[in-house]
Amino acid sequence: MRIPPWACATPAAPREAEGGDVHPPLNYLHTLTIAMTDAMSLSAVDTLCGIVPMFHANSWGLPWVANMLGMKQVYPHRFMDPARLAKLMSDEGVTISAGVPTIWQGLKAAYEANPAGFDFSNLERVTCGARRRPFP
User: What gap in Å lies between CA 96 and CA 47, rounded to an integer?
Assistant: First the structure.
């Protein structure tokens, strides 16, 4: 069985995934939609830290729109522990990030444990998928 590189899975519920086949023309339309000013207010001056994995709805289209708009992109690679992620976001001056509640709960705990260690003054927008963000 051949699986297309743009196939994605989106969890409908814990331990239950719905597979999807997203075609390149749809990725293109999705990218154009996200790039609209009123969608996520993205621009070339933003620094994106995309934490949403590519297998999850193609990272919500963020890598594609970041390339299209010329945004600086920062990715955590395999270092996903909250303290390292918080340091990366702080050091790189991230202005927008996207992740799930588990990520934001860990970052909140890392920040609360060492508020002087991280500077999130550039972080303007946080996108949270699946549920409401775990902080005000």
Answer: 6
Other beta carbons less than 10 A from residue 88's beta carbon: 17
- Looking at residue 113, its amino acid is A
Amino acid identity of residue 1, one-letter, is M
DSSP state of 93: T
> Which structure tokens are listed for 51?
């934490």
Q: What is the pLDDT of residue 64?
A: 87
Cα distances (angstroms) measured from residue 49 to each of 13, 63, 72, 78: 25, 10, 9, 14
- Does the pLDDT of residue 21 top 60, yes or no? no
Q: 22 with 7: CB under 8 angstroms?
A: yes
C-alpha 79/C-alpha 77 separation (Å) is 6
Tens digit of each residue's pLDDT (9 = 90 or more) over 94-131: 999 988 888 889 999 999 999 999 999 999 998 887 66
Overall pTM > 0.70: yes
Q: Which two tokens stand for residue 54?
A: 């590519």
Question: Distances in Å between the alpha carbon of 13 and those of 82, 91, 92, 131?
Answer: 24, 34, 33, 11
